[in-house]
Write a structure and sequence with these properties.
This protein is 62% helix and 1% strand. Strands 1-2 form a two-stranded antiparallel ribbon. Helix 4 packs across helix 17, helix 5 runs parallel beside helix 6 and helix 6 crosses helix 12. The chain is globular. The N and C termini lie far apart (59 Å). InterPro entries: MPAB/Lcp_cat_dom. This is Oxygenase MpaB family protein.
Length: 362
């Protein structure tokens, strides 16, 4: 095979490569669904949350299955240590430096996200611990002395260390609650907020996930008020200044380099990846998420007051589309594509368990 043929291979995306097999998501063996194993005392092992949790109510809704990555990605794009880690150490960054990054890489990165987290959210305790061990190991190298060249006083970041591991977990979980309250049609009603009591209970349940990832105990929130106070405490680490995209070592702009290579390395077989990653997850879905977010977050994203108001209006007008996307055919398609075979099994098992428990059959 000649050099030219090898160079072309990375650009071509087959249907099989787009959809991925189980190995794209699975680590350390097949995860065991919550409730399908027992604790030493013989009681069911429901993992971190379980069928009576508010977390499962939120997570298992079809709207969450479809829009989870877009909302998480938008919220995490405002936490600067996460963006610094992507800029300096992510496969997207490494492939950009090599000149081989494509739209498929952007799609595949998002595709792995939900499904690789599912064992921690929906598996038994051992499955949750195994996946976190894997993620902690690969994130150990995601560290650097500079979060933002524009504000060197912020210091460095370390994805596997307590502060940044905690915020990765909290932005995942808070974005799901925000999604659920903004997009989940339920109880015969349009999307609406949980009661203050259920919101507090949600964050109290999230504490178990924070402890799994090694969060500082003094920072673990147990209520919405605790969560608000945590945002205030770490306010300097949130924002989206243009300097975040600058590689500290070279002074070059990571985002500009990457998007330039997306165009250079484009092949027509990548069109499905462009649609899912560029048009939906990083495009329309994130725009809708921005319109559903708080004014404070939109300001953190750099939106002007006028643009912020237009985003809110746009999201309200798009609610019929949001409703359609959480119907059965669309949800099932997204579930397999973005959560993977193991994720599908975990979701379906958790939903069935939740129904049995609430019916008093367990």
């Amino acid at each position: 095979m000649g050099v030219a043929a090898v160079d072309r291979d990375f650009r071509i995306v087959s249907k099989e490569r787009l959809e991925g097999n189980v190995q794209r998501w699975r680590r350390f063996g097949e995860p065991v669904p919550a409730g399908e194993s027992l604790h030493e005392d013989g009681t069911p092992d429901y993992g971190l949350f379980g069928p009576e949790s508010v977390v499962w109510e939120v997570l298992l809704h079809p709207a969450t299955i479809v829009f989870q990555y877009a909302f998480q990605g938008l919220m995490q794009s405002t936490y600067r240590p996460v963006i610094a880690g992507v800029r300096d150490h992510d496969p997207l960054s490494r492939k950009t430096l090599k000149g081989t990054v494509t739209f498929f890489d952007l799609f595949e990165r998002g595709q792995r996200n939900s499904g690789m987290h599912a064992p921690m959210w929906l598996g038994d305790t051992a499955s949750a611990e195994r996946m976190w061990k894997h993620l902690r190991t690969i994130h150990t190298k995601v560290a650097g002395p500079t979060i933002d060249v524009g504000e060197p006083e912020l210091g460095g970041y370390a994805a596997a260390e307590p502060r940044d591991a905690m915020w990765a977990a909290l932005t995942e979980m808070h974005s799901m609650l925000w999604l659920y309250e903004s997009f989940a049609f339920r109880d015969g009603k349009r999307p609406h907020r949980l009661s203050p009591e259920k919101r507090d209970r949600y964050f109290a349940e999230v504490a178990a996930y924070c402890r799994l990832v090694g969060a500082p105990e003094e920072d673990v929130p147990h209520s919405k008020a605790d969560m608000d106070a945590l945002y205030e405490k770490y306010a300097d680490l949130f924002g989206t200044p243009d300097t975040m995209a600058i590689w500290p070592d070279t002074g070059e702009n990571f985002a500009e380099q990457m998007f330039g290579l997306f165009k250079k390395n484009f092949h027509r077989s990548q069109l499905p990846a462009v649609f899912y990653a560029g048009v939906l997850d990083h495009g329309l879905f994130r725009q809708l998420a921005a319109g559903a977010s708080s004014g404070k977050m939109r300001a953190s994203l750099g939106m002007s007051p006028v643009r912020s108001r237009l985003a809110v209006i746009g999201t309200k007008l798009a609610l019929p589309f949001v409703w359609m996307m959480q119907r059965g055919p669309f949800e099932r398609h997204y579930m397999r594509l973005m959560w993977g075979p193991d994720g599908v099994k975990l979701i379906e098992s958790a939903r069935a368990l939740r129904v049995r428990v609430h019916a008093g059959a367990v």
